[in-house]
Amino acid sequence: MRKDRTMEFARGIRVRRRGLSLTSLIDVVFLLVIFFMLASKYITYEFVQLKLSTVQSQDIEKSRLSNQVVIITLAADQKFIIEGRYYTEETLIAKLKPMMHEGRTPLSIVLDPGKTITVQEVMTSMQQLKKIGIKNISLVE
Amino acid sequence: MIEIHRKKKHINDLNLIPLINVVFVLLIFFMVVGRLERTDLLGVELPRTHHVGSRNAQSDPVMVYVNKTGRIAVNNDFVAKDDLLVIVKTALLEQPMRSVRVKADAKLLASELIWVIATIQESGAQSVSIMTRREL
Questions:
Q1: What is the pTM of this model?
Q2: Which residues from chain B sit within 8 angstroms of residue A116, using beta carbons?
Q3: Model ipTM?
Q4: How far apart are CA B51 and CA A79, in angstroms?
């Protein structure tokens, strides 16, 4: 048998190869696809720098330390308290917008989350304040 | 008999190259777009935000996890509240410029988060950031 093949090669006759089996390759690649589909996360993260303010609790009652520093106490249901008065998102924006252009220094907001407000509510409030252009936001320590 | 033989021949002749091409493209897509991450011990559900912070992350930060009940872990090791200061301080000893990233649960009380941040700042961390999940 071997002798015949050698003779065929010697004579220059092409021996037809069997086609390469791709089934095992596909198996492995499918496994990899399934692994990456299930193990990977497709979430985009944001990194928020939180500044802690050195405002003392007695200052919170005054609510407005100066023209350009406002202390906002966060209340439940996305309500805000400034100087004892409740504000919704719309009324707060209406109050803060004119103040943003009053002084030379940019308006600073100090948020007081109290004891019952969650991290999500603080983040939502910060989002609302950043939306109107306030950049200096800190939290009461 | 002849028909069976023909069918067999037809199956053997199936061209698998386009299938392999598509599967390879899918593989590359999932490898590039996805991110493999270590699962955290506490199962923290991140708060959702939209354009509050930046998307630039510093590499190799000290990770601090806080779940909704206030339980704390540092780099996937549970930590008692009283030990947080010492452990973060130790982690920052070798690389003082290393940033600290806090992964806090959305339902955690903000007062607890403030305490954690104050403790981290007290340990000498130069940069402390909160991780949130970006809403599309």
A1: 0.74
A2: 109
A3: 0.77
A4: 21
